[in-house]
Amino acid sequence: MKQNELKQSVGIKAVDFIQEGMTVGLGTGSTVYYLVEELGRRVQEKQLQVQCVSTSQRTWDQACALGITMKPLQEVSTIDLTIDGADEIDPDFQGIKGGGAAHTYEKIVAVNSRKNIWIVDESKLVDQLGAFGLPVEVLPFGAQQLFQRFQAEGLQPKLRLDDQQDPVHTDSQNYVFDLELGTIKHPHLLAQWLEEQAGVVEQGLFLDLVNTVIIGTDQGPKIISDIR
Ligand SMILES: O=C[C@H](O)[C@H](O)[C@H](O)COP(=O)(O)O
């Protein structure tokens, strides 16, 4: 199967985990796109009634266009389940997210969810995190100084640029540095250090958060559940 077909298969499968009346967190990205399409279809066919919160403007717009009931985060008291993509997942189901610059809102929604499911194609599974540049959202104020601090620490930051070579802005109008680390031997220590740096809004290591992973394989979606 092609990569997009694998993404579509897990996006569709994940909707089976959504139950009537739930408040659902919708992630961001090309895999979540298929989840939202399928959820929209089931809502339109009156198979499911749910309300959702979004992790990005992109997902919000897609979901609204499909007639899914969307709520601002501050208007919901609990999130029953969040379904999101990931850029890398290691054998302990620790992950890197933020390839679409949405990881700050994604993490806020994830940590406030009772259950988290990630949907990925097989290419996202790695032995060790770090080949994917670690996204770090930073405030524009002081970004140059923070960039130099990261350089001095050997973290090999790169300012993320768009196709016009302008800095990418997150939904909160911040910048993203991608840290070209190669391998991350101690994810918890790195996460802690990054979070202590003034100007860091959020870093893309998602540690000890996910309960279930749905992996797209040529043999069909493979579900690994209740790992936490
Ligand atoms: O910022 C974006 C998110 O963390 C995405 O969930 C992640 O990049 C995976 O996206 P995709 O499904 O497009 O590979």
From TrEMBL:
Substrate binds at T28, G29, S30, T31, D84, G85, A86, D87, K97, G98, G99, G100, K124. One of its GO terms (biological process) is D-ribose metabolic process. One of its GO terms (molecular function) is ribose-5-phosphate isomerase activity. The active site is at E106 (proton acceptor). Pathway: Carbohydrate degradation; pentose phosphate pathway; D-ribose 5-phosphate from D-ribulose 5-phosphate (non-oxidative stage): step 1/1. Its EC number is 5.3.1.6. CDD domains: RPI_A. It comes from the Bacteria. GO terms for cellular component: cytosol. It catalyses: aldehydo-D-ribose 5-phosphate = D-ribulose 5-phosphate. Keywords: Isomerase. InterPro entries: NagB/RpiA_transferase-like, Ribose5P_isomerase_typA_subgr, Ribose5P_isomerase_type_A. Pfam families: Rib_5-P_isom_A. It is an enzyme of class 5 (isomerase). Belongs to the ribose 5-phosphate isomerase family. Homodimer. Catalyzes the reversible conversion of ribose-5-phosphate to ribulose 5-phosphate. This is Ribose-5-phosphate isomerase A. It comes from Bombilactobacillus apium.
